[in-house]
Amino acid sequence: MHNTYNDTINRELTRSLQSAIPNARAEACRLPDVPEIALYLLNCDYSSAELTPEQTRRIMDYPAYWSFCWASGQVLARYLLDHPGWVNGRHVLDFGCGSGVVAIAAALAGAAQVTACDLDPDALNATAHNAALNKVQLTLCSDFAHVTAPIDLIVVADVLYDAANLGWLSRFLQKAPEVLIADSRVKDFSAPNYAWIDRRRSRTWPDLDEFDEFREVNLYRGRATSVPATAT
Questions:
Q1: pLDDT in tens, 74-125
Q2: Which residues touch 151 (CB under 8 Å, ≥6 apart)?
């Protein structure tokens, strides 16, 4: 993955990354649980040991979520590649796409069209470069409300960490007949028209050495009323 084009993208994303994380750099790497996919992420040997309190606050105020592939993203990407029936021939929307890993997996698994949606312009920029790195086509969108084309499936990874985001669950089912959610943060998840379907272990990459409980990722399926089950 080392060539002139990748070096140029590494430099561009590194400039973006360093606005949030000092001394960091972006590197293209393959994912441990989804080796079919490569992403531009934070360098694996980055050390936060010497960050000043001011630098730490800046990181917390503007976290570069796109520079990590979170455990839920790896799990949901792996799930789609292992069960392409969920996306084959369908229009899929990846909500809060971050690095774009799930959107890329949906495209590789045979989706007819994939829309990657995120409020963060840096995330959309990284997603565009990651899509090119994996030779897939994605449609980028910065506002969920601006998606007007019919959506068959919404995929969501690691978005429910904020309780305020739970209100999106009903909005998803107003936009699409089916939803797939991967989450490692919410315990005792319960929402109308959503059901638990699987649990898998993974980790954030680069490894943040998170608590073991955050390596347990649950998968949930949301279905609008009277929607037939999807083939898996």
A1: 999 999 999 999 999 999 999 999 999 999 999 999 999 999 999 999 999 9
A2: 91, 92, 93, 115, 175, 176
